[in-house]
Amino acid sequence: MRIDDASTLTRPSADPAPVPAQPASAPPAPAPPREPGVVTVEKTLAILEAVAERGGATAREVSEALGFPLPTVYRLLQALVQSDYLVHLTGQHRFELGYKLDRLGVSLHRQIGIPTSVRTEIGRLHTLSQTAAYFAVYRGADVVVAYVVDSPDHPRLTPLNFGFHEATHATAFGKIMLAGMSSEQRDQYLDVHELTRLTATTKTRRQDLYAELAQVATSGVAWEIEEFVPGMTCAAVGVRNGAGMIIGSVAISAPSAELSERRQRDIERHLRDASNQVSRYYRSGALRRANTATL
Amino acid sequence: MRIDDASTLTRPSADPAPVPAQPASAPPAPAPPREPGVVTVEKTLAILEAVAERGGATAREVSEALGFPLPTVYRLLQALVQSDYLVHLTGQHRFELGYKLDRLGVSLHRQIGIPTSVRTEIGRLHTLSQTAAYFAVYRGADVVVAYVVDSPDHPRLTPLNFGFHEATHATAFGKIMLAGMSSEQRDQYLDVHELTRLTATTKTRRQDLYAELAQVATSGVAWEIEEFVPGMTCAAVGVRNGAGMIIGSVAISAPSAELSERRQRDIERHLRDASNQVSRYYRSGALRRANTATL
DNA sequence: TGAGCGTTCTCGCAGAGTGAGAACGCCGGG
DNA sequence: CCCGGCGTTCTCACTCTGCGAGAACGCTCA
Prior knowledge:
Two copies of one chain form a homodimer.
Chain A: H1 39-53, H2 59-66, H3 70-82, E1 86-89, E2 94-97, H4 100-112, H5 116-129, E3 132-139, E4 142-149, H6 172-180, H7 183-192, H8 206-219, E5 221-225, E6 232-240, E7 246-255, H9 261-283
Helix pairs in contact in A: 1-3, 2-3, 5-9, 6-8
The structure holds a DNA duplex.
């Protein structure tokens, strides 16, 4: 059973900034797209990430990659080393990631807080249904992937790593969560999140989406057939707390080609079983943070 | 928490610089101990860690905990949110950790890079010997815990988490690694790292330590009996690469009381077995980064 | 209705961060 | 042996950035 590795760089969601075309000229001040923010902090974090991406780097590499002058890079590198976000491998003349990042990662997982019983249940879902298996929860106003179990034979959908929280309209667990919101919450949510087209069959009109959500609400199961990634299908069932509110969702993904009608029925059954088990956990006490997802 | 370099030595706590006459000002703060560094960055990271420690926090909590004025805290919080190191749960008026921290944690683990075959071997060591099991490697000039397998019945020693790299003189795997260094490397290492007393039996004199290291080098196994944590004993065996150099170490920890002579023999056997298996992996190709530990 | 909190803005000042440049030690190659 | 290149640290004067008191706005609760 693997926890979570993989995950590489995802394209930074390019904001629709005006002036997308930088005229190649103007070496002086082409005014980068970025909003103000605290410049020093942004530079520092950029350096940290540069070191992370290339699995360690020399100061010069960072300087060239980011276009920051060398003295600045050294200064900020040292600040990061001092706080244990980086280590300086003096022998190898390299900077690599520091151990605080592990501790922070652990803290993050603790904040999301998926109990072991739920983890094993998702593991069972993976084994029984022979698919990648997911657990998603509300976090604040977002819907986020909180746990994944997959295997070489049944790998996760590449973007669906821990922390994924986009494309709610185009994922099975996203539909479950949208269907679980009050209509005002849903409207507000969709006012902020566009119905981006991802494949030929992605539902990009609210009308269509609402119609499906109504159906999801009654049937209790959401399917998503190649609306997110071509050739792949997902399915999900909601998880409810003691008050009957949807607080999360168990889900699977599999190649569409492998899904005979019979297999679909089996999967639905496994999803409902898993949902029941997980819901049972959340019904019995232990509902830690207020999951009422105020939006 | 590092104790290393000389920079601390150069600056006496209260520097009696020329111009001692401060213009009558400064009745309040006599300037805290901290060395310069990039102030903004330090503040920002302090905020990040404050949020991590308390599992999410409001801006005001952070402000009070760290003594930074509110507008500053908000500004830096936003910088962190913008870079995905924090999320702002607007519904709950809280800031919590962001998903980039997971990605950075994963990158760190990838940089340390313990292959799965080694992981399973440490798992087996845990099961067979019925103890917490560890794998440690050189990283730059340091010796760091790279992987741990434990269980409720056989928990790890509390400080021995991933990333632990102190007290080399008082841990079994540390002794293995010290024994594996050239004498110049060892001397240099010990010039920088004090032989801190941790328990009544910690070896704090180089003499004593060197004597034991010589014995470790010949026997191939290091024991550490309550020199690190009272009541707990550790043992370790080295892992060698194709060139015969020590590049890591497998280790276990257990309560001293549970270690009959027979059990000690069993544990030594299991450690040697594990070491052989792991060494085999590092012998066959795959010796990625130059582990020659230049110091 | 008002107090308290979360959150964002404004704005003038001070000082922090900046970055060209030089310096130092170390290495490997000519 | 000396030179050139690299990693690393320091200096220093200038400027622009981050600072933080304070006020403002909206919300929730009593």
